[in-house]
Amino acid sequence: RIVKDASQLPTRERMDGEMARKMLSTNLFKRPSAYSPWSAVAVVAPGDSLVFTTGLTARDLHGAIVGPDDVGVQTRRVFELLRGILEEAGASLQDVVSMTVFLKDIADVAAVQAIRNEIWPNATHVSSTTQAGRLASDEIRIEIAAVAAISAGPS
Description:
This protein is α+β, with helices and mostly antiparallel strands. Helix content is 21%, strand content 23%. It has a 4-stranded mixed beta sheet, with helices on one face. A two-stranded antiparallel sheet has the order 1-2. Helix 3 links the parallel strand 4 and strand 5.
């Protein structure tokens, strides 16, 4: 669905108790099926709180890299860390509205997408993925930063 003007954006009144955000797709272009499901736009309801995370890498409690050079192990660890810090902030993985993924090698995108599809089987956030070339360590293959929206509830 293409939002043509602001009156089509969801307000708390128009959302009638639905989730605190709307995910919208567009007919302007088609995304490759390897990256589906997906959303083109995330709209957060007025009054909701946003939670911004730092870029997370796969580290253990002592700061050691988990799964050196294994993007699958690292992706799962990053999502485990993301879940934990969002819960500390009063949010969950299902509250994520935007995610930025930095990869050491863009060839890893399919492996990362497969894990993301396990966590989010439906399009629940917008996302950008890019090859960063070099991250904080040569053994790190992925870094993820996210934004979550915590519903303020009915107004």
